[in-house]
Amino acid sequence: MQLRSTGATGVEFRKFCDEFPAPQNAVDIFKGHWASSLPGDLQSGDAHLFTHDPRPEYAAKAFGSLSGMRILELGPLEAAHTFQLEKLGAQVTAIEGNAEAFLKCLVVKEIFALNSKFMLGNFVEFLEMGGERFDLVFASGVLYHMMDPLKLIKLICDAADKSFLWSHYYDPALCKGYKQRSITFEGYEALHYAKGYRDRSAGRFWGGLAEGVRWLGKDDIVAAFKHFGHSRVEVIDDVQNTLGGPSFSLATWK
After folding, report:
1. Strand bridging mode 11-13 / 3-5
2. Range scoring the smallest mean pLDDT among 61-70, 151-160, 204-213, 245-254
3. CA pair distance 215, 192, nearest whole angstrom
4. Number of domains making up the chain
5. Please, what is the average pLDDT of the chain?
6. How many Å apart are CA 179 and CA 19, to the nearest integer?
7. Full-model pTM
8. Banded model confidence at residue 196, pLDDT cuts 50, 70, 90
9. What CATH number did the domain enclosing 233 receive?
């Protein structure tokens, strides 16, 4: 039982499964499309995001504990961080804009009996609606996929008094092929570095909803959080030699 991508707007898979009921059957709907290696003996991807990714633990250490915290997770992808955040005691609402990734999250939710809530849609629009506040926004791997990264930082600061961010950032010595443009958003001006995606219809495309991205420099990311109301910002780690470009983790407080 296997899924086949039919472009950026849809996927196709075999409708019926006549095999003995087992978790692997659900995983195999997306065979060849998983990034993550799922816990246990399930056959999926090769990235150990469920078991060896330190970012949820970084957040727990930065904020003392996540137990009982209402967390809004932006872009859960395959629910690996959701899985870890829930084990750390958090109550998670996760919003995913990639329909295939959202369905994978539901597979993970069922197999591992997660209590987290998954929603399909654009988390920027959800944040713009306002009204609902959270204890913490967990935003790992999403800022550098935004066409309006300053806007997202502002919305994160509005939605919670605390946030955890992991993101790539622009470094002129390490990032090539980006076009520079200065953009001002609600009183903060920063250089944005734009680049288009290659093939958004690919089955293993993990990018954003727009046709391209605008990266920010590291200092501008930190300064933007402070400008938009999170006056305390701590850099947890900063790694120069990651595959996708330089990256860092931040914990922020109002």
Report:
1. antiparallel
2. 204-213
3. 6
4. 1
5. 90
6. 51
7. 0.91
8. low
9. 3.40.50.150
